[in-house]
Amino acid sequence: MSLLEITGLDVHYRRRAGRLHALRGVSLSLSPGETVGVIGETGSGKSTLARTILGLVRPSAGKIVVDGADVAAFKPRQWRELRRRGLVQYVFQDPLKSLDPDLTIAESLAEPLRIQGSAGIDDKVHKILHRVRLDESLLDRLPGELSGGQRQRVAVARALITSPRLILLDEPVSALDSANRVQVLELLKELRDAGTALLFISHDLGSVAGVADRIAVLYQGEIVEDRPASAVINEPAHPYTRLLVSSAPTLRSAAAGRAARGELRTLLDLEGAPV
Amino acid sequence: MSVLALDQVRIRNDVDGREIVRGVSFTLEPGGVVGIVGESGSGKTITCRAALGILPEHFRIAGGRIDLDGHDVATLTPKQWTGLRGSTISAVFQDPASYLNPSLTVGSQVAEVVRVKLGLRRRAARLHTIELLAAVRLGRSVFDQFPHELSGGMLQRSLIAAAIAAEPRVLIADEATTALDVTVQAEILDLLADLRDDTGLALVVVSHDLAVVAQFCDEVLVMRDGEVVEQGPVEKILYHPEHEYTQLLIAEHESYGLERYLVSS
Amino acid sequence: MIRRILQLPSGRIAVGILGFIVLLAAIGPFLAPYDPLEGGADILAGPSGAHWLGTDYLGRDVVSRLLDGSRISVLGSIQVSLVALVAGVIPGILSVYLGAVFEWVTLRLADTLIALPFLVFAVAVTALLGNGIPQAMFTVGILISPLFFRVSRAATLSVARSPYVEAAIIAGASVGWVVRRHVWVKVLPPIAVALANTTGIGFVVVSSLTFLGIGVQPPAPTWGGVLAADLGYLSFRPWAPLVPTALIMATVWACNSLADAIRDVTGEAGRALLLKRSADVRARA
To answer: Nearest residue on chain A to B186, judged by CA atoms?
Structure first.
């Protein structure tokens, strides 16, 4: 059975100039141990998708079934109960902003457990720190004293501490340099192998390709392609996916795709097409 | 003759006495492209600033020599520098929005560069600016738009328009595509490649991503902690990297990037 | 935080002055050499060994009147800032969480209160409720409360939208948890700044009211009252108004520079300094 099953999800934002259609008819499913990459650029609705799954944004239509329950119509109280089970966790794009600057690392890590009211908190905090390969001396530091890579591992550790079955990650490696990026990606692979489902959201096909089993491409609020990663990358079907794949900088690709990219931009009526 | 040549350039921070850059050399021919790869703090940006004559306070060139279009920059007066910047060497940086005044239209800001650098009158400057915007594939309507009305890619293209206004011979692109979406990044890189093909503009492309630099560079410098750890033609760097740091950069792409799936052709 | 304020020279001086003034308010009336209400034969006398600052137009000792009057001035200004604190901070934080209706009502109420001139209004209220410092100060406190409302609301808003609060919500935190755990600490420093500022304002208001003779029955001494009395006999004792004026000015200055000091040590720069210090301590350990 799938852990997350989204069908026909519509999200609108109210704006001064009418309504903004952020997501249209999005359907997506995720099984335990599966990693799905959601690729979308600025304005594609990828953050809205994550926030809707987490209950921070209310959908105008559609179903979101998490572990057998349709959460789309949940009331605040039901949401709180669901969240306290720690089933679904989220890793933010900016690790510095997602940690309270006035709380020590130990306090930040323990917070989800404190909210749950669970026992043996200290023990779990030490264990999780070990799991993300951070030193115990960091526990009584403040987020501002850590490096970017350490912070992101703390943020991942906080998400892991409730033993979630599904983790949403919003650009978890975009802000990291290559050495730290490799470490965080390795960690995600371990999680996947241990049976955790991951929804990896990014604008960069390159950073998702290494860990995703399936890739869903989000373009202007719609999923235009949802197939195994190698299929999306090697035989992209939608013109936008083709542009995305040919735009991703790779070591071997040189300037060969320049003309093809120009045609695709014209086809999609994007800015940057020759005028 | 080369348009930009660095010979064993060393840059010192006079406050703590540390050498931020230790021995960078490369030669750029007209229409050539040199790439510099390195993480933040590697010294790549400070090297570019030295070539532009805009080193921050307390930083100075402590050794080596920079030749810009035949002039040894150490002998240039501030006035001569101002004359060369824009018309011989120019640059675009990360975060284009911070280089534009939010309360003026994009067109008026590009036109200002045209008026100052080319000495054109208001009307002629406007016409020339619209031509420049077309060269970076921006429509006429952009002239009267404000920065907040444009996307990051469009802002970067209008800054490129301003940078190439006085037909410089060298353009430095320092992390110019880092903050942009991938398709927009490709669009800017394609634009730079087109400009090089059409006008013989020489480029220095600086990035933390080896793949971005590898797109169209002839020569690549890999920098780390102020030193050039590896330097050579792009094919050599990509296929026969010698330094372990370069190997790490490539291994990261091979095992986590698109390369994992791409059928090698 | 208090230790770091004391490390700043301006903070040290401000705390010193305020400490001295509070001490005056606490024990001043007992130190007074004469009965502040009882006049003597010696009217409008200059400074002498018996009367350090001379006597006023009824022959009352000015030192005794200033010492005795300090209590009303200090208590009045503290009352203003405490009333404003309670009336402003609680709705300020709640306006972010209690829904759109509460938010709309409190925002309009704050706008209305801020538009009222508090000195004039305080005069009106004392006319209505009887002449007394507590009534006047309560009114002024309520009228100043929008300052606290805005400050605490702005601080709460910036925290409420931060990713770490969302992280707590995603972990199942209730509003109460979020306020206790994350919001409260961030709202305290700006409130402390506002508190120091309003105490200064309160001082000016108490002095102004008592100068006008509002809030106290005539014989009772206050700093503002002493000042008013001295101004009436400028030709006899031209230097005399300087003393109560200096007292009022020093206190208000101390309140304001304390507010600045709090801002300095709790702002972004203060936080960076704190981080550096704790790193230094660790490096030494």
So the answer is: A247
- Minimal C-alpha gap between A148 and chain B (Å): 12
- Mean pLDDT of all residues in A169-187: 82
pLDDT > 80? residue A23: yes
In this structure, of A116-120, B57-61, C51-55, the range with the lowest mean pLDDT score is: C51-55
To the nearest whole Å, the CA of A83 is away from the closest chain C CA by 5
Are the C-beta atoms of A204 and A212 separated by less than 8 Å?
A: no
When mean pLDDT is compared across B25-39, C167-181, C193-207, C221-235, the lowest value belongs to C221-235
Nearest neighbour of C164 by CB, restricted to A81, A100, A115:
A100
Phi, psi torsion values for A180, nearest 5 degrees:
-70, -35
Best mutation target among A180, A207, A252 (most B Cβ atoms within 10 Å) is A252
Residues in Cβ contact with C152 at an 8 Å cutoff, skipping those fewer than 6 apart: C88, C89, C92, C93, C187, C190, C191
Cα distance between residue B194 and residue B192, in whole Å: 5
Pull the structure tokens for residue A90.
Answer: 């989220």
Cβ atoms within 10 Å of A260's Cβ, excluding its own: 12
Backbone angles phi, psi at C239, to 5 degrees: -85, -15
Q: B208 and A177: CB-CB below 8 Å?
A: yes
CA A226 to chain CA mean position, Å: 16
Q: How far is CA B23 from CA B16, B234, B241, C94, C239, in A?
A: 19, 20, 20, 60, 73
**What average pLDDT does chain C have?**
82
Proportion of chain B above pLDDT 70, given as a percent: 98
Q: What integer pLDDT is reported at residue C285 of this predicted model? A: 46
Residue contacts between A and B (CB atoms, under 8 Å): 130
Give me A13's structure tokens: 């934002």
Of A205, A252, A254, the CB nearest to B182: A205
pLDDT for res C134: 81
Residues A154 and A134: beta-carbon distance below 8 Å: yes
Distance from CA of C260 to the nearest CA of A (A): 21
Contact B187 A258 (CB under 8 A): no
Q: What is the ipTM of this complex?
A: 0.85
Residue among A246, A251, A270 whose CB faces B253 most closely: A251
Residue of B nearest to A263 (CA): B187
Distance from CA of A192 to the nearest CA of B (A): 15
Q: CA-to-CA distance for C179 and C165, rounded, in angstroms?
A: 9
Contact A234 B262 (CB under 8 A): yes
pLDDT tens per residue across span A101-113? 889 999 999 999 9
Query: Where do the H-state alpha helices sit in A98-169?
Result: 105-116, 121-131, 148-160
Q: What is the pLDDT of residues A26-56, one digit of tens each?
A: 999 999 989 999 998 888 888 899 999 999 8
CB-closest option in A233, A258, A272 to B153 = A272
- Candidate from A42, A210, A262 with C-beta closest to B256: A210
Q: Is A109 on the interface with C (CB under 8 A)?
A: no
Using an 8 Å CB-CB cutoff, list chain A residues near C278: 142, 145
Task: List alpha helices for chain C, DSSP H.
Answer: 2-7, 9-31, 62-97, 100-115, 118-129, 133-160, 163-170, 175-178, 184-212, 223-232, 242-266, 268-284
Q: Could you give the CA distance from residue A111 to residue A113 in angstroms, rounded to a whole number?
A: 5
Q: How confident is the model at residue A14 (pLDDT cuts 50, 70, 90)?
A: confident
Check residues B98 and C217 and name the one with the higher pLDDT.
Answer: B98
Residue C111 to chain A, least CA–CA distance (Å): 24
In this predicted structure, the answer to whether residue B16 has a pLDDT above a threshold of 90 is no
